[in-house]
Amino acid sequence: MPDLLIELFSEEIPARMQARAAADLRARMTDGLVEAGLTYAGAQTFATPRRLTLAVEGLLAASPTVTEERKGPRADAPEKAIEGFLRGAGVTREELEIRDEKKGQVFYAKITRPGRPAEAIVAEVLDHVVRNFPWPKAMRWGSGSLRWVRPLQSILCILTDDAGEARIVDLEIDGIRAGNTTEGHRFMGGGRFAVSSFEDYEAKLKRDHVILDAQQRADHIWHDATSQAFAAGLEVVEDQGLLSEVAGLVEWPVVLMGQIDEDFLGLPAEVLQTSMKEHQKFFSVRNPATGRIERFITVANIESADHGATILAGNQKVLAARLSDAKFFWENDLRIAHAGMEEWIEQLSNVTFERQLGTQAARIRRIAALARDIAADVGADAGRAEQAARVAKADLSSEMVYEFPELQGLMGRYYAEAAGLPDDVAAACEEHYRPLGPSDAVPVAPVSVAVALADKLDTLTGFWAIDEKPTGSKDPFALRRAALGVIRIILDGGFRLKLDRYIDAQLLRHKISLNHAKASDDEIDTLEEVLDEIADHGVFGAAFRAVMDRLQEKENAPETEEGSLLRIVGDVVPDLSTDLLAFFHDRLKVYLRDQGLRHDVIDACLMLDGGDDLALIVARAKALGDVLETEDGVNLVQGFKRANNILSQAEEKDGVEYSFGADPKYAEVSEEKDLFAALAKAEGEIAKANAVEDFVGAMAAMAALRGPIDAFFDAVQVNTDNQVVRRNRLNLLGKIRDICLQAADLTKLEG
Amino acid sequence: MAEQTGMPRSFQEVILRLQAYWAAQGCAMMQPYDMEVGAGTFHPATTLRSLGSKPWAAAYVQPSRRPTDGRYGENPNRLQHYYQYQVLIKPSPPNLQALYLGSLEAIGINMALHDIRFVEDDWESPTLGAWGLGWEVWCDGMEVSQFTYFQQVGGHDCHPVSGELTYGLERLAMYVLGVDHVMDMPYNDPQAPIPLTYGDVFRQTEQEYSRWNFDVANTDVLLRHFEEAEAECEAILSQPEVDPKTGQRIIMAHPAYDQCIKASHVFNLLDARGVISVTERQAYIGRVRALAKKCADAFVTTEAGGFVA
């Protein structure tokens, strides 16, 4: 059985695309071969900056011949139908067979698809794969029309039989004829050479200074880097992403360690690391004793005549230029930081955050106001939270963050420390961006929490206020991530806060700034007044009404009738707020689903306490989830649903609601009396448990109803002829519904 | 010119060697375009000639201006006026990388001593409505050139594709000559009777232009120039194809493109003066791009653009 070797040799393939491309080459080629009937024993794939390689072992020499039988029309079918069948099957009239079947004589055709040699199939599949390759970005070159990631220079495609004899697969793609040759390293290779098998290919590449396997290159780099660092009593800062990128930039890695000029060692470690990594693809080498970055590792692609001396000197020089920029930024920034960062904060009033939502400065003012509101709920000092929010984004104006946006927050912390601000304020500068992703830690320090929540809620309410909500896969402002961040911060910290109030307040702040230009001073004052009232009333609606009532008595009050600005804001804020809270609920369900909590269980608990205290919702849902794991719980739900169904049907039929007036004196059997007693007990226990947020207790009290409810249904018929008894029993079912609803809305449960 | 060996001794020798090398490869030696541009790509020998089906090969030095990069001649490698060396070959030859490496050898870079790398860098010019794929070329970790296969220019697909090489001459020469501050770089041969450094030639102009660019340029006048250039560009392109005086079909793609270049440079000056906000910025870039596209549309209907009546 032959082996297949394919190499697609091109100009330099971007490092970040190599691994994916190698995997795609294997998947697409082997899928195509198998589909055409060529099975194989194994396949390996490789990538270097200049080549994608696929080696397939134990390929069938030819696809098997396939015979298939196809049933045709009846023998007496119209001529047209028979001709059509012949065409479709690709056989002649003479080759047809007639068989007797129940319905009469029927034509059968035997279709034989002869096997094809591997060579023909490989040529066909490879042509298709190359022409349709899924590069993230592809290009044309010269006068051709083929698209590849960079110009494709040559194709090597050979089949090697068991005797070791290699045949070139006859194939030409856009003027490139497949052959059996390739070349090695760009500078250390010895020109083109022919190969006869994968082993031969790999060995000759190595001879010509190409390590084919990216993992081997990465291992080699890491081994040399760590041992050179170790020899100097230092350690390499691990960076897997950088390692695989660098392994994709070289065919023959040569590790060189260089010095960082003494002048730059005072820069923050993160600045050194980021600058060296982003600009130069250098690894950082750290002194384990001090934590300082003292040297760098660069990986060259050549064993140079002077053992890397020129290369290292050049790299050192470039690094010095880069770091003097960084040092220049750092020193300039520190000057402004020492002066209290006011200059940066002022500059932010010239920076647009979003066209409608205004400047960064306006955004910061809103965040500071909200952080102040939230502070008490998360155990932070209100003044500190506000102060932290005011400076948390100041570093956006710094030169360092302009140069390295990924250092935002971290630089803020350094600069806040330099400005002599309290530690918790400095920490908030860095931590308020967290969590940055699903696996990033949430902030825990109270001031950081207050600012982080305020920042995210301001973003969410802002985009809600201008109707830029995420749709489908589109979420350009990462609002889902922001909502998840809020959820995780609240739940991880176990914070008890009414989200509604803060959403309302912040929506209103957005509405005030969005309308600032066109509203009258009186209107703005009125809305500001509502803002103050929210703190007292807890939600927008009541606050708004209170202010409106006061306006009645005022002379020259702003307009409040239909269509007026105040009325429009009064109408729209509650709608937006409800909608945003629902968005939080959706995110909450997604988040908890990943932790194994069913979405219907959450639904059953969502609105019991107003729906805006996330910690409470989750505590209740977890208790319900647990009780549903028990036999009592499962059966209670069945009993509850039975009661609820009977009740709903009767209510619909009779047009009344059976929710009041069940009286034990009409109870006929003991099971009925027992249920009355059990419900009375459960009601008391659930109320007591709810009052102290003992949801496990509430669920247990509810689950205890399982026995009495089951016994009741076994013993009595609800819809009896005696109307008094029937009504009493329906009211009793109504009581089950009402009492259970104190613990959880079981109607929301599925199944 | 006799084959030069060893290391170049001056900035101008680096240029002369590149000229000799690319002339030997068959490129037409063009001269700098006589207008202020931000990069060698703006020269019509690149922008317009990369369009259409006619083969083309040109190389030239292009003085380039980036008003925001002015540092009063003090920064070791940042200048508001600098030189680019530009090569454009259409269709891109299959050995363009090898040709390019040959040019590095021609200016004294020994391939056995240095680490030359092609690092992914996709090029895009929002003002020209152009993009291409390629690399920045690193020599020992320093970017010495930009290497691009043009895919689209002025909104038109490039077919055939041009290969474009851009060398930042000061930076490259500083590296080859081992100079740390651009102003210290020998401009002519240090052994010449009157040796001149880059600073002798350009320090004063860097100061003068930095001051003018940042603080003095009259923004009202510049804004008017922008509007005027835009209007003129459109007016030129709205003329009938056939010149009523000569009776010939004369489409004025180049004069129109001059106005596009002018608008682009005026925009850069306004940007340096800090009078363009982030949102306006996009709008200005869009307006220049619209002009570039119209010029490209016009050029492809001319003979040089491959139009066949």
Notable characteristics:
heterodimer; A: 751 residues; alpha+beta; B: 309 residues; BirA Bifunctional Protein, domain 2; 2 domains
Q: Could you explain the architecture of this structure?
A:
The complex is a heterodimer of chains A (751) and B (309). Chain A has 751 residues and is α+β, with helices and mostly antiparallel strands. Chain A is built from 27 helices and 18 strands. In chain A, helix 11 (382-391) crosses helix 14, helix 14 crosses helix 15 (446-465) and helix 23 (631-654) crosses helix 25. The longest helix of chain A is centred in the middle third of the chain and has 30 residues, at 309-338. By secondary structure, chain B is α+β, with helices and mostly antiparallel strands. Chain B folds into two domains: 11-211, Bira Bifunctional Protein, Domain 2 (BirA Bifunctional Protein, domain 2); 218-299, Methane Monooxygenase Hydroxylase, Chain G, domain 1 (Up-down Bundle), CATH 1.20.58. Chain B has helices spanning 11-24, 96-106, 169-177, 198-216, 219-237, 253-272, 278-299; strands at residues 28-29, 56-65, 81-90, 116-120, 123-125, 130-139, 142-153, 156-157, 163-168. Chain B is globular.
Helix/strand class of chain A = alpha+beta
Distance between the termini of chain B: 42 Å
Strand count, sense and barrel status of the largest sheet of chain B are:
9 strands, mixed
**Helix amount of chain B:** 25-40%
- Point out poorly predicted stretches of chain A: none
Taken from the alpha-carbon principal axes, the silhouette of chain B is: globular
What does the secondary structure layout of this molecule look like, with pairings?
The complex is a heterodimer of chains A (751) and B (309).
Chain A: E1 3-10, H1 15-35, E2 42-48, E3 51-57, E4 66-74, H2 79-89, E5 97-101, E6 104-113, H3 118-131, E7 152-160, E8 166-168, E9 172-173, E10 176-177, E11 181-183, E12 192-194, H4 198-207, H5 214-231, E13 235-236, H6 240-247, E14 254-259, H7 269-280, E15 283-286, E16 293-300, H8 309-338, H9 342-347, E17 352-354, E18 358-359, H10 360-375, H11 382-391, H12 399-403, H13 410-418, H14 423-431, H15 446-465, H16 479-493, H17 499-514, H18 521-537, H19 540-553, H20 565-593, H21 599-606, H22 614-627, H23 631-654, H24 670-691, H25 695-703, H26 706-715, H27 723-741
Antiparallel strand pairs in A: 1-3, 1-7, 2-3, 4-6, 5-6, 7-8, 9-10, 11-12, 13-15, 14-16, 15-16, 17-18
Chain B: H1 11-24, E1 28-29, E2 56-65, E3 81-90, H2 96-106, E4 116-120, E5 123-125, E6 130-139, E7 142-153, E8 156-157, E9 163-168, H3 169-177, H4 198-216, H5 219-237, H6 253-272, H7 278-299
Parallel strand pairs in B: 1-2
Antiparallel strand pairs in B: 2-3, 3-9, 4-6, 5-6, 6-7, 7-8, 7-9
